[in-house]
């Protein structure tokens, strides 16, 4: 049985039928009832009139011990709904056009890219470096801030280099004094021991 009622649309929520094959929408109305529709277009339209006064055409049907509340149509306050169809004479077959079932497409999950891996690794290395340096400079005054920041960046670059060292094959290191002198600035080969200047913190480029 269809009837036209006045009131406000309070909200629209979607859900899946128990069989999992149909998407339905519940339109909460100010009379305390929720009216269901399978029409996604009607549900989208209703969501645009939340908290507004409307005239709704609803169908209330008793199904055993349950009462079904269905939303047939609605119009904003001041607008008229189409005239209700007259009931068919007894014995006249009623043909109902099948309604298409609209199943919302699932949003494609975001792929984990190389840029994501790089960013996460950098953040992890920086966090570990800050924690380590913070313990080392604990109790130091404000004058040590810049030095601590530089040290934390150097340590995080070292951590990052080690974390991604598996991505490139290890290159063989120098094995003779001549090879050492060729790759390390300031190192000379003499009769005695090979002397080198104090080592500086390695500079690692963050990929």
Number of DSSP strands?
Answer: 5
Adjacency order of strands in the biggest sheet: 3-2-1-4-5
Written as H for each helix and E for each strand, in order along the chain, the element string is: EEEHEEHHH
The CATH superfamily of the domain at 2-76 is known as Nucleic acid-binding proteins
Silhouette: elongated
Q: Would you give the CATH topology of the domain at 2-76?
A: OB fold (Dihydrolipoamide Acetyltransferase, E2P)
Percent helix range: 25-40%
| Proper CATH architecture of the domain at 2-76 | Beta Barrel
- If you average the pLDDT, what whole number results? 76
The major pleated sheet works out as: 5 strands, antiparallel
Q: Using only CA atoms, what is the Rg?
A: 37 Å
Derived from helix and strand composition plus strand pairing, the structural class reads alpha+beta
Unreliable stretches covering 5 or more consecutive residues: 191-197
